[in-house]
Amino acid sequence: MKTPPRGDSGNLATSGHKTVLADKHLLTDQSAWSPGSLFIFGDTMNKAGIKLQLWLGYGLVTGLLLLIAALAIVSLAKQKHEFDQFVDGNHARAQMGNQLLHAIDARAIAARNLVLVTTEADRDKEKTAVLRAHAAVLASLQELEKLAIHPDASEGVRVQVQKIGSIEKQYGKVALTIVQLALDGDKDAATAMLVEQCRPLLAALAGAADEFDNAVKNESLQATRDADARYVTTRNSLILASVLTCLVSIAAGVLISRHTLKTLGSEPAVLKAAVARIADGDLRGQLEKDAFDTSSVLAAVDRMQYALISVVSSVRDNSLAVATAAAEISAGNNDLSQRTEQQASSLEETASSVEELATTLRQNAAHALRANKEAHAASDVASKGGQLVAEVADTMQSINTASQQIARITGVIDSIAFQTNILALNAAVEAARAGEQGRGFAVVAGEVRNLAQRSAAASKEIKALIDNSAERVRLDSELATKAGATMTEVVDSVRLVSGLIGEISDASQEQMLGIEHINRAITEIDDVTQQNAALVEQAAASASSLHQQADELVQVVEIFRITGNGATAG
Length: 570
What we know:
The chain is mostly helical.
């Protein structure tokens, strides 16, 4: 199964021209790596760190190698594409042209044989061969015309295919007419047409086929020349890219090595030896470096050596002072610890005394509170007594009023008794006048008079008793009134005493709270004093440890050797 052709020879040449232009453009881009670009790259490398420099250097070389590989891959892909076009286009047209010529030859031979055969079987056989060959000619011509109209076919090929098609239209009609005459039995006419018309058309068709073959060959030669030109261009581009990659790799290596040496200030072995000597404590050596070098690692090591000499000298001089000060601090902390312990003991005694005072105040406050409650109770009782005295006074006043009413009633009874006595006396006088008839009435009047006299005497006695009772009630009422006033004064005094006791109780409560605050404050002071004592002990231990460490520091500093030739900071 054939794939459709892609492009013609004209476009193939154009494609080759574009490839050359693309390669020239690539060369132009590659030529952009001028010395100025290298200086810019060098400045960038100087500003970057060693790690970044290595990454940039290797990345640049890798990128150029990838660019060369991509260029080679693209070139191979283009060559493969052009070869596929050649196979699918030019080669396919050549094969189809050969197939068409073979079909035309087979049709011509079959037509000639059809004129020459004599038997019916041979005639049918040749007829079938003619029709089959004619169908093959039409199919091959149609396929060749399709191949000729593709863009990859040249104009010469299209012209020759059109010419072959035009001749075939004439030759096909003549061939079919000869076949029909032969089938009709008119061999003379068929032979005459075969000689007169068929042979010239067949010769013209053969000439057109030769021209078509030449055109196809010219296409192949042009494609070969274009491929050779592209090969040369690609080869030159790859050589130039490889040389450029080598130059850039060398330049990057030189720049990285120069910058690395400039950063280190010397060879790594020299720098390693200097650092090892300083690590061993030998600060007497002098580093060999450029006088203008102030930013390299070697210059930094030189400054470090000079700084170490100053530090070691200062530490050595100050270590003894630190040890002496630590001893004095330790002695002072011991004295402070003893005084702090004494203060803590005094605070404990003070706290005990304050606690006893607080207990006494709590008892006084409790007694004052109890007295306050009793005073309130006495005030309540006195108030109730005053109320009772007031009620007694009211009752005595009511009795006095009732006695006065009874006295008035006895006066009325006495008046009635007096009038009754007068009436009885009058009745006795009238009974005496009546004589014997009024004797019984006189007896009754005498009895009534006796009763009236007895009632008057009883009324006088009651009145005397009532007057005596009223006088006593009046005196008792006055006493009750005085007693009520006295009870009121007692209630007021009790309330005053209760208020004073309440104030005493409140003051005792406040004093108790104050003592409790003082007790807590003293307790906290005692705790703080205990903590201070512990801190003082820790400070004493720290001072002792500091003294010991200062001695050890003096011994450690002795490791460094700074006598003799000292290093300079440069």
